[in-house]
Amino acid sequence: MKKTKMLKKNYEFSNVISRGTYYSGEAIEAFILNNGKNSNYLGLAISSKAGHAFQRNRVKRLLRENYSYFEDSIIFGKSIVFLVKKKVSIENIDFYQVKKDMKKILEKSNVLKDKI
């Protein structure tokens, strides 16, 4: 994640979630908002009720790795928050499922510069 900065504060997450556009996949959902800046911002959130810390951290690593795959082709000036759906069992989430969902979400939201 060379060009992307992370969202860390609660008010940054709530701003993107309340004002952003909602997109959904099978296992993940996203809120995307134009931020008017020259860089992208990424936020990852998963409920503590979803599983133990090592399971939540594994899912966040999968999200970050998949985002880094698409990062070069995302238009600048976007704030993106990825959430893991509560009804999905996080033990069964794998790399390719996250990649498929993320590609679907990013294509549907028209934030990709070119088709991948």
Poorly predicted runs are none
Rg? 13 Å
Overall mean pLDDT stands at: 90
| CATH architectural type | 2-Layer Sandwich
Please identify the oligomeric state: single chain
Number of domains: 1
User: Sheet bearing the most strands, described?
Assistant: 5 strands, mixed
Helix content: 25-40%
Number of E-type strands: 5
CATH class: Alpha Beta
- The amount of beta strand, in percent, is 15-25%
Our measurement of the CA-to-CA distance between the termini, rounded to an integer number of angstroms, reads 18 Å
Describe the structure in brief:
This protein has a 5-stranded mixed β-sheet with strand order 1-4-5-3-2, with helices on both faces. It has one domain (4-108): 2-Layer Sandwich (Ribosomal Protein S5, domain 2). With 116 residues, the chain is an alpha/beta fold.
Describe this structure in words.
With 116 residues, this protein is an alpha/beta fold. It has a single domain (4-108), classed as Ribosomal Protein S5, domain 2. 36% of the residues lie in helices and 23% in strands. The chain has three helices and five strands. Strands 1-4-5-3-2 form a five-stranded mixed β-sheet, sandwiched between helices. Strand 2 and strand 3 form a beta hairpin. It is globular, with a radius of gyration of 13 Å. The mean pLDDT is 90.
